[in-house]
Amino acid sequence: MNFRQKIIFTSSIAIAFIFGITPVTNAMHIMEGYLSPMYCILWGAICMPFLVWGYFSIKKTVAKDRKSITLIAMSGAFIFVVSSLKIPSVTGSCSHMTGTGLGAILIGASSVSILGLIVLIFQAVLLAHGGLTTLGANTFSMAIAGPLVSFGIYKLCIKLKVNKYVSVFLAASIGDLFTYCVTSLQLALAYPSEMGGIQVSAAKFLAVFAPTQLPLAIIEGILSVLVIIGLETYAQSELRGIGFLKVGEK
Amino acid sequence: MKNKKWTVVVLLIVALLIAIVPLFVLKGAEFGGSDDAGSVAISEITGQEYEPWFTPVMETWIHGELPGEVESLLFCVQTGIGVGIMAFLMGRFVERTKQEKLRKVQ
User: Where is the protein localized (chain A) (predicted)?
Assistant: First the structure.
């Protein structure tokens, strides 16, 4: 094996690990059996086009520059780590981060949807967090809506010439918070309040999730910035390969 | 470069503080998952205890809830794998940068 093949081989092992053994748990996910079959199918159907897009997007990224597999593995591993850490929050309950913001910034929102889906499947099967019936809804909130917002905010900040690290911080933390907003909305749609309907219900769910998640969103932002700093220092050629750094930019 | 190092250190400390401070400030809090808070909110809204219509497959397989210790084991396995991959890749990157610099000097 030459050096290049070795890189590909080791990265593929890394990816196999991410994809193969992923008992990720996300406390904010909608619990198994808590959505009616109609909503399960609806959310699943909404996810489909994004997942297909994500699959082709990953394929394209890898075809363009095989080295970028390492960054895909890195994004996956990051989701892995931060979503396993349940952190105490100001409200007296624990929650954990999503970690999808970093991936969205690095390899694009659509590619992250695949990483997120795989994480969610194994978590639903092995750890009884989230669930197979609510997989569609959870995929939409954590692996599609959150990353899309992160990606959008990052691009917007860069266009407005905001400092790169500040952009990453904002993108990752707001994306994390947005995931919870979507979850609240999904629950509210399924359980509209008798008085006031969906809006009152959504406000109620948001009141449960948001205060817990806010400090964690800040931590996620900070961690994402740290990973970006690390990659910028040591993996410039990969970052150029996926277009995160422009040619000639340091 | 030195400036960046300080940024990293400060950011790490801030992240740690955000995570740890609630534990000491809110003494006696339960720190349960916000997952449960979600189901409590549901029963508040619907006015009755909600009965999930589908049980997690793992619980069906082992006929009961996953033991707490095993659950924390699986959590640790997950963290370990993630950290392992990140550390491995970062290690490779760092060493490669070092080699490139050495080659440039020669």
Answer: Cell membrane
Mean per-residue pLDDT, A121-129: 75
**CB spacing of A77 vs B12 below 8 angstroms:** no
The predicted model scores a pTM of 0.81
Report the gap between the CA of A151 and the closest CA in chain B (Å). Answer: 22
Strand pairing report for B32-33 and A93-95: parallel
Å from A90 to nearest chain B CA? 5
* Domains of chain B by residue range: 61-106
Q: Are A149 and A174 in contact (CB under 8 A)?
A: yes
* Contacting A residues, span 171-200, partner chain B, CB-CB under 8 Å: 187, 191, 193-194
- The CB density around residue A160, as the number of other CB atoms within 10 Å, is 8
Q: Tokens standing for A74?
A: 């890195």
Domains and CATH numbers, chain A: 3-241 (1.10.1760.20)
pLDDT of residue A41: 86
Q: Does B91 touch chain A (CB under 8 A)?
A: no
Measured between alpha carbons, how far is A176 from A181 in angstroms, rounded to an integer?
9
ipTM metric: 0.80
Q: Which of A34, A83, A229 sits opposite B8 (nearest CB)?
A: A229
Give the pLDDT confidence of B48-72 residue by residue, as tens digits: 666 677 777 777 777 777 777 887 8
